[in-house]
């Protein structure tokens, strides 16, 4: 059969595609064919929302235009026939007119790296198209499919709630919306300003052709590619014929299942049948006994139509199948014949005396599959509480949905009395006694959830029975009442407090003003260009990696013949094809670019395939056949300890101070313990990407790449190609997030895997090449935060004061040492946190395992060791029965104290932050309120925790990195200023701050400045943008360059004091004065040349950033769920260069830290393969996880003479404050355990997942859910 033409509209433009490929997604088509890069590729599995667009269709039946927010990465273009697509480019632009949604997210400081912003904009835009005045709740709910790794979500919600009909502005009559227009726009976000009002008459018009023509939805369509046929019937009989003719065909509605199966389960579907236009599948019929729901009805449509009455139902040629244990035969398979479809689902109405409730527990509140879900139904005899019928169904307890058949049968005839719950717990154990690990493992927890769900169901039904006449005896104890509902959130809210600049500060001086991110409007309109947004040029190639499928093995052979024969494939590159050195260097350690003889982790790069398209390259990479000889593996810290598998011990992995033995002798109490913590994925929204372009002579190569360390990338590239560094130019415009993951592993992923291959391609093919890792590839290869194990022995006196501490921190480094020696060093530097310990020995051990190499991550080892320290505090408090905040206070550092590493605390603000957060959070009143709440409730508990933090802003042992450089040009024609510096913009607002520094130094308004990109051809030998030093190093360099320029211009300013900047610049140019200056800065070796240090004291120019947080949580003891009710933070940032950006960093760091300590969990298979390799399996915090009330204050009157304009580094220091949630959870668990008579210390490892919370709240249910006795090989590894 011949293929049809595909017709749809994009941003009002008609698209006619004559060769529509069913395997092409809308995202691919937008970016590569239509060149609309505003829609981003974040995950490729519909889990992050970066690719959100609006799809509109005309509903003939309802005579209504319907708008849907859709994930373009999962939408096949063939499904778009007769539809209209709107992207972020279609609603507004900085070149024409901004849409209010775009303006508000920018001016509300709702963007940082900006990669997720177009998706956020389109989700909100779609909501407004459907409901111009949404409620605050609707605004918060609309983003359940959108993720952000930078902002912490609060400013996004705060900005978009201004569209809500019930949003009361906290500014009252001073609200910026009702202020007169301000003519001066050089400080847009600092002064009250008007937002553009939402005007529905200015929205893009739905294409009239799609309304007038009736043919788009009534024609049988066929689309074909080289591998797949797409068929779209419009009649039920045709659909059934196609299903019979192609029994293995997949029926597609939204493509969420088929798309993921194709990507992750390597399923190749030859025939796809789109059932989207078969009318019978969209019917919803309300009958006397229930509702028939068509098989293709969306949940959104179902919600709308439940209030309608549809009287016509389809009759004939049908059979009924009950959704019981015989319907789901195995995962992904149902009891449906090859020529059958699901026409509809019938949901009966509940009867008199019948109660039905559902339950679900997931890893995250929104957009997460269930750990366990349940549906429970009971029917009673008339006028009695005797059970007539009972059904209990569970999901995720095994490979299929499961009915508790034995339990339900035994319940029949029983009375609905308390003894029933105990019996059901026993019976459920029989129903599920032989379960294997099941989907996702966690079987003890799942069994506990099953019992807990029934307990909730039992009491909920009891309450319902009590409402009926004659059932007044069916009472529920008051302390159980709150047990019934799941934890709920109120609408989020918060405050941000900072010092305003002095009224006397000149308006052109931007330092200290809360300017919006310099590129925020470009983020919001999709105009901000990231590496993969660059348009393809003629002849450009794509590469895909060939990675190991063994954790430790010898490579016996590599067969590429089948792969090279595939369409579009150009070449394979391996270790033999690297023209220079196949070894890249991180610090002083080398590791192979391409594995040559042996692989040491699952996912190690062996080679790469290069082809004309990314799809062809990826297919070829999968077709490469590699033969291995397996070798022994080590995955966990515990295994490494047994095998003594360590990286060489170095002196910097040991810190000693005082006399530990004497300290223990003086101690009144000695405690020992340990705590373990998991790793963390960076989950930057933009994965590793690079693009290499040959320049045609002398081997010159230009590389556009996503890296935090351009000079490291340059050096590794040059070494791999055997070229001098002056032939290699690295260019970085911006990153879509970094967090440390693009510092050295970008040279491994982008540079090594993309760059190095790219350069080899150039060498042999002399054509441009680009590579961008898919999300699962990036997570598999790039590594993350080091998992840790902390063991400690602590000596204390009777009031909890430290006398001695001996602690060891084990870090799981992975298959190479990478930056791990520095990470363990920082971990030990930071171990003490905010506490003075007179006698201390700290040891760091790097475990060598067969996991992908772990690397830099925000905090760089400090969060791991500081968690151990705070856990020691908690153990001391419990052991001595002293409030933990008292133990912290009695041991807290004071001004001029020395740390164990000999750093003197100057301008120590720990006590100020601590006391202010106590006052701000009303800590003592909250403790009383929490105690009362816990007395009144058995199964829900609250907890509170106060945590301080101290973070050293330094490169620690690598002093040579503490330098920065800048180049500043002034153009004589108009006086505009171009700044180039060595830092990389990755969302932290570095470029914005550099412009603010320059504005004060040159006494110019910010609109005179521009920063283009970071490039090694203008600023060489750059220090990686990391360690929270970006503003310090580069800010001082920019300041020094500007001082030079200002000094050169002084004679012309003095000679013409009434002149303008442009006049002075022109005069200097005419006088042949250079208008270009370099700036350089290095951290001084001493903070005071006249100071005489004591023995062991360091005198380097280093400082600490301080802060404190208080968090209140509520946990559901029956499920392990929790909600953060409130968090207060007070942070010492010195004199902030930009309070809005600094508060954004605090909120974003807190959200990321919250993920580490509560919900983010990496899981590996028993073969060492990462299982949690995308947003569907690895959950970062979402909108529903942020504190309900989130208050952030910058410490007033703070100063820091050791950094540019008295500011402080802020990227990493707030991260650890999220542990206040962890310890608040532990506090709540303690209250729950007390109900069971359990007192004293208990172990809670990080992250405090729902499973760990539930199982730590030991009770009558958990004690009957011990681990299975089946001695099968575990499917999952907890590292």
TrEMBL record:
InterPro entries: 2Fe-2S-bd (IPR002888), 2Fe-2S-bd_dom_sf (IPR036884), 2Fe-2S_ferredoxin-like_sf (IPR036010), 2Fe-2S_ferredoxin-type (IPR001041), 2Fe2S_fd_BS (IPR006058), Ald_Oxase/Xan_DH_a/b (IPR000674), Ald_Oxase/Xan_DH_a/b_sf (IPR036856), Ald_Oxase/xanthine_DH-like (IPR016208). One of its GO terms (biological process) is purine nucleobase catabolic process. Keywords: 2Fe-2S, FAD, Flavoprotein, Iron, Iron-sulfur, Metal-binding, Molybdenum, NAD, Oxidoreductase, Peroxisome. The active site is at residue 1212. Mo-molybdopterin binds at residues 708, 739, 858, 1027. [2Fe-2S] cluster 2 binds at residues 113, 116, 148, 150. Residues 223-415 form the FAD-binding PCMH-type domain. GO terms for molecular function: 2 iron, 2 sulfur cluster binding; FAD binding; iron ion binding; xanthine dehydrogenase activity. The lineage of its organism: Eukaryota, Metazoa, Spiralia, Lophotrochozoa, Brachiopoda. Its main location: other. It comes from Lingula anatina (Brachiopod). Its cofactor is FAD; [2Fe-2S] cluster; Mo-molybdopterin. This is xanthine dehydrogenase. It catalyses: hypoxanthine + NAD(+) + H2O = xanthine + NADH + H(+); xanthine + NAD(+) + H2O = urate + NADH + H(+). Substrate binds at residues 743, 860. GO terms for cellular component: peroxisome. FAD binds at residues 251-258, 360. Binds 1 Mo-molybdopterin (Mo-MPT) cofactor per subunit. Binds 2 [2Fe-2S] clusters. It is found in: Peroxisome. Its EC number is 1.17.1.4. [2Fe-2S] cluster 1 binds at residues 43, 48, 51, 73. Residues 4-91 form the 2Fe-2S ferredoxin-type domain.
